[in-house]
Amino acid sequence: MCTSSHRHSIFCILPPYILRNIADSPESSPNLRSMAINALNIDATFRNLRQSRLANSKLDGKHPYSPSTSQQKQRTIFSANYTQTFPGTLVRTEGSPDSNDPAVNEAYNYLGDTYDFFSEVFNRNSIDDAGLPLVGIVHFDTDYSNAFWDGQRMVFGDGDGQIFNRFTSSLDVVAHELSHGVTEDEAQLIYAYQAGALNESMSDVFGSLVKQMKNNQTANDADWLIGAELLSNAVKNDTRSGPNLAIRSMKDPGSAFNHPVLGKDPQPKHMNDYVDTFEDNGGVHINSGIPNHAFYLAATNIGGYAWEKAGRVWYETLLDPRLKPNAKFKRFAQLTILNARRYNVEDEVIDAWDKVGITIPNLKPNLVAANGGRV
Amino acid sequence: MKIILETEGGVGYFPHLNQPIEVDTEILSPEDSIYLKNLVDTSNILSIHTSAEDDRKSRDKKKYKIRVDDSGIKNTVTFTDGNIPPDVLTLIHYLRKVK
Fold it and tell me: Does residue A203 sit within a domain?
């Protein structure tokens, strides 16, 4: 894709919006502007190629192949310099040495771990399976206690130092944000109510699996906590906080925190306790506890490494064309069961959903037949 | 003048952290009251008309709703992370600090 004869290496990895900023900036030298415009033209060519492949793939029902010849990470880290201004200052690119700034290194390394997980386990080439460069922005705003996916890049705050540590410090949270990009590229689950809770749950599932693979943990060894590193020592050492402090627990939703400043973890783990609310986009971070717990139960029912079977079943369900953007828990559960057949873990998955209050009656044979016999 | 800041969203849901922050200039110290009124003037928040950007592809962003009531002149504005004018951001930071 990138020919060194006419482009500086940095232009090979910068996304179009940054190239446009360079091209438009009066502070750019004529040479720099020319290189940016050149890179933009080439980028547009490959985007058009990909779009045509994507269109064809939708017609034939197959996943588009990647225009990249090999799977290679392309990470770029910027610092927003404690403002809300994007993209900020370029602080690390692919292959460059460690920074003195731990937030930069954490973002770089954890994005790499997440890329490696999707590549090694699912043979997926980045967020879009076409080698999309990974862009992380650290030091967003001041005392900002959050991380988010903005549709193009992952953004991390430093926390307030009192309740929260910096949000790059948690591998599963970094992987959670990147996984939102994967879901957006695949099922595009609507970010509200049950579909939104499934969207959140997919990010927790992959976030936890990335951490488990990095730590070489089986389903029974893993802690199944999300964001345990985010809570400050002051909160952790507070006896009122309780054990297993984190932002969520997949093993025991509702038990991750109970603290005077944070409140009590509101996540349910059974449909009987489903929370009907307008807050939080219809409770996407609340009711995700139910599918999160179903995944935990499926993984521990199956045993071994969770990414090998349970993770693959969930991933294939995310890619399943029968999963629609407005899917509810029950439909998602049905599809995981159908996909579980291929790995002989159907009973384990049925039991997991049953225990969270989602009972799927015998699946009709025509549901399988409708997919050309493929389940 | 009364100002209410409601924050929603983020990668985690913490019930107590989402509680609205309400600040009344009548009960602030004279210095704080003047400072806050200046921030409100500078941010132009009583007269701007905006709502959160249609941000359908972002996930886990925070949303900020600010309601201002200045002797019956009322306005409500909503912003999301990354789309907040700098003067409004200064006001949000101050409201968090002074609460």
Answer: yes
Chain B positions in Cβ-Cβ contact with residue A143 (cut-off 8 Å): 93, 96
Q: Are residues A327 and A236 in the same domain?
A: yes
* A147 three-state secondary structure: strand
Give contacts of B55 with chain A, Cβ < 8 Å.
150-151
Eight-class DSSP state of A240 = G
Query: In this complex, which of A149, A167, A261 lies closest to B16 when CB atoms are compared?
Result: A261
CB spacing of A150 vs B16 below 8 angstroms: no
- The per-residue pLDDT for range A124-147, each reduced to its tens digit, is 999 999 999 999 999 999 999 999
Query: CB atoms < 10 A from the CB of B89, how many?
Result: 18
What's the pLDDT band for A361 if we cut at 50, 70, 90?
confident
Domain boundary among A109, A134, A169: A169
Residues of A in contact with B84 (CB under 8 A): 84
Q: Identify how many contiguous H helices and E strands chain A contains and give both numbers.
A: 12, 9
Give mean pLDDT, residues A55-64: 45
Domain hosting residue A277, numbered range: 193-369
Angle value at C-alpha A352, between A348 and A358, nearest 5 degrees: 130
The three-state DSSP-derived secondary structure of chain B is CEEEEEEEECCCCCHHHHCCEEEEHHHCCHHHHHHHHHHHHHHCCCCCCCCCCCCCCCECCEEEEEEEEECCEEEEEEEECCCCCHHHHHHHHHHHHHC
Please say whether the beta carbons of A206 and A179 come within 8 A.
yes
Q: Are residues A217 and A287 part of one domain? A: yes
In a domain, A329, yes or no: yes
Predicted complex ipTM: 0.91
Is the C-alpha dihedral spanning B75, B79, B85, B87 positive or negative? Answer: positive
Nearest to A16 by CA among A160, A168, A133: A133
Largest distance between two CA atoms of chain B: 44
CATH of the domain at A326: 1.10.390.10
Residues A93 and A230 grouped into a single domain:
no
Instruction: Identify residue A48 by its one-letter amino acid code.
Output: N
A-B C-beta contacts closer than 8 Å: 91
What is the DSSP code (8-state) at residue A341? G
